[in-house]
What does this fold into?
Amino acid sequence: ESEKALQNLFEQTYPKNNKLEEILIKVSMLDVLYSAGVKFYSLLKMAEHIKSLGVDNKLSEGNLGVVKEISLLDGKKFYAFATKYCSFHWQDKYPKYDSNVDKVLRHFRRVDNFCKSGVQNMRDYKMYKEILDVFKSHYKLSKYSYTEIDHYLYQLGKEYFPR
It folds into this structure.
């Protein structure tokens, strides 16, 4: 249900990123519901940062570089948060990154060698998306959305690679 609430918030209620108070609500809710690591002291800074970037056109174009732009704030990287922020705006263009998904993809790479390129740098968003697309193709999962694949891999990672 929290995913549906966020999807509604990002797609229907506040689809744009030009009003600070609307961005702040999205940043806060995403951080709370996904434990995305922005933390209370940085929420306003992150909202101001996103507003200053003018991301709406980049998001609608599917520009993968916007993930990196959003993720860099005050010398820190909020990579997982940035992927989720972009994904909730355009789920068919931006898969979510999560450490559980990362572990599962690495596991399948070792076991089945589904991907020729290495998976060592999945924090390079372009590489991460390519690896995920190869995974979908290799296992004949193309009919499933990034969100559906994310749910499956996340649960698998939680079960087989607990913290």
Remarks:
- The chain has nine helices and two strands.
- The beta strands are 72-73, 76-77.
- The two ends are 24 Å apart (CA to CA).
